[in-house]
Amino acid sequence: MEKRKKRLSMKDQYRAMTRLGWETTYQDMDKVFPYDRFEGIKIHNWEAWEDPFRMTMDAYWKFQAEKDKKLYAIIDSFAQNNAQKNLTDASYLSALKLFLTGVSPAEYQAHRGFAHIARHFRGDGPRVACQMQAIDELRHIQTQVHTMSHYNRHFNGFSEFPHWHDRVWYLSVPKSFFDDARTAGPFEFIVAIGFSFEYVLTNLLFVPFMSGAAFNGEMATVSFGFSAQSDEARHMTLGLQAIKFMLEQDPDNVPIVQRWIDKWTWRGYRVLVLVAAMMDYMLPESPQSWKEAWELYFEQNTVGLFNDLAKYGIKVPDCVARIKAEKEHASHQVWMTFYTHGAATAMHTWIPDEKKQKWLSEKYPETFDKYYRPIYDHWKERAEKGERYYSQMLPHLCQVCQVPVLFTETETDEPMKLHQRQTVYKEERYHFCSDHCQHIFEHEPEKYVYAWMPVQQIFQGNCGGPTIPDVLNFYKIEDGKENRDYKGSEDEVAYNMM
Ligand SMILES: [Fe+2]
Ligand SMILES: [Fe+2]
Ligand SMILES: [Zn+2]
């Protein structure tokens, strides 16, 4: 009788199931992989980039299915037990609305972007890793939408989230971040999302939302957060590996990678200013201030990473000095912009109550009482007289990050003076929130002059008209339901009746 062949070892099995790349013969490799050369990154050996996940597709499905099963069991029991009653206050839901409108569609963009580079990298190791990450990101948006759909039955502000994401002025901040990354080449995309966002900044996005949810009695969000975070560990590994691979392949790659790290750390931070306002203002109970989170997750933890990259000649991005100077001010300035433009937001806004203001002055002893409390006092007086202030205009947006030009000269210690920059390009004037956005523009002006700027679009007559009712109509925001002050809102009434 013929002897049965020995089974393959685990390592060979894994290789046979994952390393499916080959050199093409009847088509030129450059035609099959047209995108991975034009950015100037030089690669000599794709084999050096191993798939960091070391998982077969088969194992991946089993593993992820297990996680989903657990998550959906929690979400079901949350809905059955009417756990929305356990919220500290329904004003908390503005934080969830910001997440669903701002972050969840970005997960989908990450899915599309990783699927794209999974096709276009020449090496088969990164291809399979990027493919898995693309599926992870799709799973993230699905679990988030399912989690939050429960609130849609009880509260306003959840139903039109994809429509809002593509149009509303402040949601163009995360949208333009991903549009920018996805219209770059594959190497810049992986630095932008895999490294700067996932590796350097992700903790500042997810941890505050998740711990904020836990502090405010919202366990469904905590569950999807944990479920997504367990994928993030893999994403971080891929991001770091991508950077090291580029840096090790050729010294000519170093300045290109440095420019991308500088650009995307800044772009990522500008998205995080929305999270800063969320942490300091939108959570009835805040576990941590924005400033504390920045100091812990960036100033302390990321130093080690940059020390590690120093041997390749990589330096800490210049923008870190600006972020440091802004950390005492950013959350206040962003929330005040939301408050004054609260007629055109897809969530409620409000003046922080006494308890919150006391907490803010403890967390920001240098700045809150001196600069910001007096403004809230003034607004409160007006609101009590029935004259709650709503701007009838939308704020001017930065051409690059699309955050309103709202920050002040914090680096030169003139916190009441507006910080803005301008560049004239082909006889048109462009506005920026900072030197860093201006530099990004000046490096690639042709890219950013085509940016879809929500406020400019309104003035150009592309959004149904220039007044607030016209704009709300275009946005599909129901006036008096989704926008304006939390006080007196249907959400507040619904919560109090529960
Ligand atoms: Fe994700
Ligand atoms: Fe991710
Ligand atoms: Zn900007």
- How many domains is the backbone divided into? 1
Supply the number of helical segments: 20
Q: How do the helices and strands follow one another from N- to C-terminus?
A: HHHHHHHHHHHHHHHEEEEHHHHH
Give the CATH superfamily. Answer: Ribonucleotide Reductase, subunit A
Task: Compute the number of strand runs.
Answer: 4
Quaternary structure of the protein: single chain
Structural category: mainly alpha
> Helix content range of the residues, please?
55-70%
CATH fold type:
Ribonucleotide Reductase, subunit A
- In percent terms, what proportion of residues is strand? under 5%
Named at the architecture level, the CATH assignment is: Orthogonal Bundle
Tell me the distance between the termini. 76 Å
Largest sheet geometry: 2 strands, antiparallel
Organism: Sphingobacterium lactis
Pfam family, one: YHS
Keywords: Monooxygenase, Oxidoreductase
InterPro entries: Ferritin-like_SF, Phenol_Hydrox, RNR-like, YHS_dom
Quick structural overview:
The protein is mainly alpha-helical and 498 residues long. The protein has one domain: Ribonucleotide Reductase, subunit A, CATH 1.10.620.20.
Describe it for me?
It holds the Pfam family YHS. GO terms for molecular function: monooxygenase activity. This is Phenol hydroxylase P3 protein. InterPro entries: Ferritin-like_SF, Phenol_Hydrox, RNR-like, YHS_dom. Residues 413-451 form the YHS domain. This protein is mainly alpha-helical. The chain has a single domain, classed as Ribonucleotide Reductase, subunit A. Helices cover 61% and strands 3% of the residues. The protein contains 20 helices and 4 strands. It has helices at 10-18, 29-32, 57-80, 93-120, 124-152, 161-165, 172-182, 186-215, 219-249, 253-282, 290-309, 319-326, 330-340, 354-363, 368-384, 435-443, 445-448, 454-459, 468-475, 490-497, and strands at 408-409, 414-418, 421-425, 428-432. The strands form 2 sheets. Strands 1-2 form a two-stranded antiparallel ribbon. It has a two-stranded antiparallel ribbon with strand order 3-4. A hairpin with a 2-residue loop joins strand 3 (421-425) and strand 4. Helix 3 packs antiparallel against helix 9 (219-249). The protein is globular. The chain starts with 9 loop residues before the first helix and ends with a helix. The mean pLDDT is 93. Bound molecules: fe (ii) ion (2 copies) and zinc ion. One fe (ii) ion is lined by residues 107, 110, 137, 140, 228. Zinc ion is lined by residues 270, 398, 400-401, 403, 432-434, 437.
